[in-house]
């Protein structure tokens, strides 16, 4: 999250969930409750932290976010119909921000076997990592070789989408 706070641009490829910066409170609460990795007494704090990070998308010098979300994410009724309706409305709203690009990767694009977030700061520093997934609840910094492969795959995917 340290790099996220300093980043000027972020690319997020998410095959399982709406990216955290785009989640509503209800959606965030639903996934935290469903995954069982966050103790019940910590869920509200985790939700509040996730939602507070969204301030990065507004203000005088907002983060430029390019989010690629798998079609399954927007079709799955995470938290039920009301939660998903609110989440989809939020995605539509955020999609009007000049610094936010949201793309849906269609089923026809094939299988995505990884999630990745790439962030760039003004000093040309960057970070790339796989966000925490059910199989590994801690962010894993990638080796330079793996980072290069995932960055190349992500760039190839973006070229197909654009």
CATH fold description = Endonuclease, Chain A
Instruction: State the share of residues found in helices, binned by percent.
Output: 25-40%
Tell how many strands the DSSP assignment holds.
6
Strand order of the largest sheet: 3-2-1-4-5-6
Portion in strands = 15-25%
CATH architecture: 2-Layer Sandwich
Give structural notes.
The protein has 162 residues and is an alpha/beta fold. The chain has a single domain (2-161), classed as Endonuclease, Chain A. It has 6 helices and 6 strands. Helix 2 (25-35) packs across helix 3. The longest helix has 18 residues, at 144-161.
Outline:
The chain has six helices and six strands; from the N terminus they run H-E-H-H-E-H-H-E-E-E-E-H. By secondary structure, the chain is α/β, with parallel strands linked by helices.
What key phrases describe this protein's structure?
single chain; 162 residues; alpha/beta; Endonuclease, Chain A; six-stranded mixed β-sheet; 6 helices; 21% strand; globular
């Amino acid at each position: 999250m340290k790099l996220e706070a300093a980043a000027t641009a972020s690319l997020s490829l998410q095959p399982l969930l709406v990216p955290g910066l785009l989640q509503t409170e209800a959606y965030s609460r639903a996934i935290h409750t469903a995954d069982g990795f966050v103790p019940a007494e910590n869920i509200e704090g985790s939700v509040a932290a996730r939602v507070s990070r969204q301030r990065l998308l507004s203000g005088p010098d907002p983060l430029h976010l390019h989010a690629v979300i798998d079609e399954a994410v927007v079709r799955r009724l995470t938290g039920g119909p009301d939660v998903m309706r609110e989440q989809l409305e939020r995605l539509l709203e955020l999609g009007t921000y000049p610094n936010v690009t949201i793309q849906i990767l269609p089923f026809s694009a094939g299988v995505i076997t990884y999630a990745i977030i790439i962030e760039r700061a003004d000093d040309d520093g960057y970070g790339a990592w796989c966000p925490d997934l059910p199989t590994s609840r801690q962010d894993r910094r990638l080796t330079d070789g793996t980072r290069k492969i995932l960055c190349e795959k992500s760039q190839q995917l973006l070229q197909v989408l654009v």
